[in-house]
Amino acid sequence: HSEMPAVLGKVLLSQLLQLGNRGPQRQKTFTVEEAVETIGFGRFHIALFLIMGSTGVVEAMEIMLIAVVSPLIRCEWQLNDWQVALVTTMVFFGYMIFSILFGLLADRYGRWKILLISFLWGAYFSLLTSFSPSYIWFVFLRAMVGCGVSGHAQGYCLLYCSLLIIGLASVVNPTIGWRWLIRIASIPGIILILAFKFIPESARYNVSTGNNKAAIATLERIAKINRSVMPEGILVEPVHERRGRFRDLLDSKYLRTTLQIWIIWLGISFAYYGVILASAELLERDMVCSLQTAAAAKELGDDSEESRSPCHCRLFAPSDYRIMIISTIGEIALNPLNILSINFLGRRLSLSITMGCTALFFLFLNICTTSTGLIGFLFMLRALVAANFNTIYIYTAEVYPTTMRALGMGTSGSLCRIGAMVAPFIAQVLMSASFLGALCLFSGMCAVCAISAFTLPIETKGRALQVCNSSFLTQLQLRPHEKMILT
């Protein structure tokens, strides 16, 4: 009994020491990213993918609509070539300017509100376009449509939307006219507005503005739809990484890469929209040898006011729509080969080869051939320009570190819009004055891009994604071994 107090004292002391070693228990916390990982993929994400993917359909349909409407508005308002080209240019001008504005507004007022406004804007002005009383109104309203679709999710569905629009145009244009084609093309955008009730505000945006309650409500709703559970603990805002700045793209390490990437993006966009508009121009103006004879015979027996008009006026024939559909399918033709080449040959060599081939096939369009030969040339051109887009997109995403990746893609996208704005004046204005001159310009730009791709200083094949750049590590003032670990 005399030893009991000593034993109890030792036990109590041991327990106190254990408690002291444990320290105060920390409360569990989680971030939005961790909550998303815990909830997992489910029905909510499938529905969101379908809705947001459909926004890309609307965007692509509005942009591709001009190619099949151009011959009709040219005839109705007796337009010159530069006036037809200006329509497409203004669409992309509105797209480029308002994509920056909508991005800034989304950071300030939330993603959901800006996305809804952009949809309402695009659908409203698209519908108004079908009631345009004059050319000036048509240009203005299409520019407003370009502003609206700039706020949509940018999906890679131009192929399917092109096929849809061409198919609709082949039925609607000859029967009830281009105004009804635009109205029908506006229907998907109007329907999608009703689906916005399903889309919640971004949980990350709510957390960044201090509205954790709304963020938790969004995450709980997603978990309920997915039949999953939320992580335990309190929602906290993660530590923000340093964002890339424009001058980082022009840092000595990335200066040459950035400049060459910008040239390539501009050239690829220039060639992509150039071949779309050029194909329509080839068919509209009967620039194919086999079609010129038939067209000349037709004109000899046609002394109407339309045939004597100083402004070229010829509508697409059913065979023209078939040629456009077949050539458009070419955009998926080289995808398997493109995937193999970028993984075996590397990004630079693969891109330089496809760009070089694009330059050659532009020149092949000057060969006097049959309609079958024209289909083959246009088919290969569409396949090659689509492969170019795929490769440069992958390369740009891989070459920059995490802190600069979004900025690098964003600036490249701006150059892409500039290329799209210039292409109509070459494909629809210069081509009517000098067919070979326009083809040489498209081909020359592709050749410059091929050389630029081949001489890119960094090959990203087999290279791990870069987490941060050297200047960022310098600013962190880490010790040498810590820099090496992070790198």
From TrEMBL:
Domain Major facilitator superfamily (MFS) profile: 48-461
InterPro entries named in the record: MFS, MFS_dom, MFS_sugar_transport-like, MFS_trans_sf
Cell compartment(s), UniProt: Membrane
Keywords per UniProt: Membrane, Transmembrane, Transmembrane helix, Transport
Broad class of where this protein is predominantly found: membrane
The keyword Ligase belongs to this UniProt entry's keyword annotation: no
GO molecular function, one term: transmembrane transporter activity
PROSITE patterns xrefs: MFS
Coiled coil stretches, renumbered: none
Membrane topology annotation: Multi-pass membrane protein
GO cellular component: membrane
Gene3D superfamilies according to UniProt: MFS general substrate transporter like domains
Family per record: Belongs to the major facilitator superfamily.
Protein name: SVOP like
Organism: Gopherus evgoodei
